[in-house]
Amino acid sequence: MSVPGRDYLEVRGIRVEFDGFVAVDGVDLTLLQGQVHFLIGPNGAGKTTLVDALTGLVRATGLASYDNQNLLDRPSHAIVRLGIGRTFQTATVFEELTVLQNLDIAGGVHRRARSLLRRRRGVPERVHETLATIGLTEQADRPAGVLSHGQKQWLEIGMLLVQDARVMLLDEPVAGMSAEERRETGELLHRIGQERTIVVIEHDMDFVRDFADVVTVMSAGRVLAHGTVEEIRADPEVQRVYLGHTVEGVA
Amino acid sequence: MSRRTTLLTALGWLALAAALLGLAPALLSDFRLGLLAKYCCYAIAAVGIGLAWGRGGMLVLGQGLYFGLGGYAMAMHLKLTDAGPGQVPDFMVLYAGGEMPVWWEPFRSPVVTLLAILLLPVLVATVLGAAIFKRRVKGAYFAILSQALTAAFAILLIGQVKTTGGFNGLNNFQSFFGYSLYDPVNKRMLYFLAAGVLLASVALMAQLHRSRFGELLVATRDAEERVRFLGHDPANVKLVAYVLAAVLASVGGALFVPVVGIISPEDVGVGASIALVAGVALGGRASLFGPALGALLVGYAETSLSESFPGSWSYFQGGLFVVVVLLLPGGLAQALSALASVRHRVGGPPGGRRRRERPASDRTRPGPTTPQEVTA
Ligand SMILES: Nc1ncnc2c1ncn2[C@@H]1O[C@H](COP(=O)(O)OP(=O)(O)OP(=O)(O)O)[C@@H](O)[C@H]1O
Ligand SMILES: [Mg+2]
Fold this sequence. Notes:
The complex is a heterodimer of chains A (251) and B (376).
Chain A: E1 8-18, E2 21-32, E3 36-40, H1 47-54, E4 61-66, E5 69-70, H2 76-81, E6 84-86, H3 99-106, H4 113-116, H5 125-133, H6 149-162, E7 167-171, H7 179-192, E8 197-201, H8 205-211, E9 214-219, E10 222-227, H9 229-234, H10 236-242
Parallel strand pairs in A: 3-8, 3-9, 6-7, 7-8
Antiparallel strand pairs in A: 1-2, 1-4, 4-5, 9-10
Helix pairs in contact in A: 3-6, 5-6
Chain B: H1 3-27, H2 30-55, H3 64-83, H4 90-95, H5 110-134, H6 139-159, H7 161-164, E1 170-171, E2 175-176, E3 179-180, H8 184-210, H9 212-222, H10 224-228, H11 234-260, E4 262-263, H12 265-268, H13 270-283, H14 290-308, H15 313-327, H16 331-347
The complex binds adenosine-5'-triphosphate and magnesium ion (MG).
Magnesium ion binds next to helix 1 of chain A.
């Protein structure tokens, strides 16, 4: 299927197997630009593994294409260069570098080799804008290691912005954040999501209800349901899987 | 990098230049100056090790390989010019009945020799490095592999008596690009050449450290997988540092030959490689001046110890490496900056050193400081 005028990430029949255990079992997804997608599901459903497969961290079979390029069988750094960025369940910023240096280093993909040999002079425009977008202008010169958990996640999103990732795959970005920080994160995602494809893995149903445009529910490696929050909540299959779990928002 | 660090770096470099180009020639006898020239050759290789190991996290335990490439290229050229046009080096007349292998022939040309000194290590290090880093060989495996390559190289040299002089190596050089090596004035010139190249390589490192590549290299050292998700292949980042280190080792080796007057498998083997790394560890592998100063110091210690306790050197050198790596992973540079920060905390002028005060716990570390990181 094709959607004129909009970028999209298409996933067909993705399958990941670990020594006989099938962690992702034939997932189909079409992720459109301009929407904030949520990927939910119980622990071990295969959400992280799916993102790993799309970013070259685990081997997968099937088809995943973006901008007419096949993502599978490419090394991670080449996938990043196609415009696909991700964050990890635990924040992985460069703790000893400052916030500014973290953002600056993320812009390296777009620099020519020669300019890498020169020292950084001033703050690149894009880094400057991003600092404001993620609300860390005040912290620009502090080492990233001293940031709060939530600020580190914002910094990672900022690094994806400087990297100019067209697709952002965010693995539980608001875990451990305060309610206020979650709200700010949700608004940030919608602000930057206009011209990007954003996929958020999430457990918190309040957050999903407030900020999801589209939700995909995974369970045991398969897609259980796909649709708006209302459609998902009405789905009997989803209710069955979530019965007895802590996600009352769905059931 | 702040203005202040840039200024300090420039001052440090000037002090080093004053010591090497002004003080040392004024104070030292010709004999001692010749020894210092030899240490400078080690130090040039050490500067490269500082980049690969200190900044890039690759424990290059076998830089003797590249030191030897440059050294033997230079030695072959000197042997050929001593022999004269169309003639064969003296030892080949002795061992090989005057037969010279064809691959010696190009080294008659000074231009080819100089190019070989620069490009041979690029070629070898690129091929080896690409194979090693793309396969994601790292840590202790990388260290062992790099050392095994050097050992193999030394064994190869020993086995080829007819073409490399075997165990004795190449020696007994008469002149260096037309200048007699017996003339004390020319020997002093050689010292200035070695010291000048050392200063230039330290300056090159200063630029690399503060460049974006330098930041990327350190990031790769500390979080290789994360760098991959910035869109860089860490193998390529490491390869650049590894190749640069190889070139510096080769240049050091090439200068070593006219300065010392001999190159043999012993100068390029495992022991020599470890001595280089020991100097870097002692000085502080991740610091700018540490590797060079450490190598100068270890070279000096080697001479003094072998003068007073012959035979004790290799034990001392091994022990030094272990002790520094275990107890002082940042080397003397770490000890100095720790001292400076203690003094600052006790009696420094308020607001003098750092405008914004930070609690001691999140003071940025001078370099990697945990033993596990040594082979990381
Ligand atoms: N490298 C691996 N080797 C073997 N099994 C793995 C590996 N990685 C993940 N798995 C298994 O695959 C399944 C899916 O894991 P995954 O991490 O994708 O789940 P998830 O949906 O992200 O869960 P969570 O919400 O807890 O993060 C789990 O059963 C997990 O144990
Ligand atoms: Mg997960």
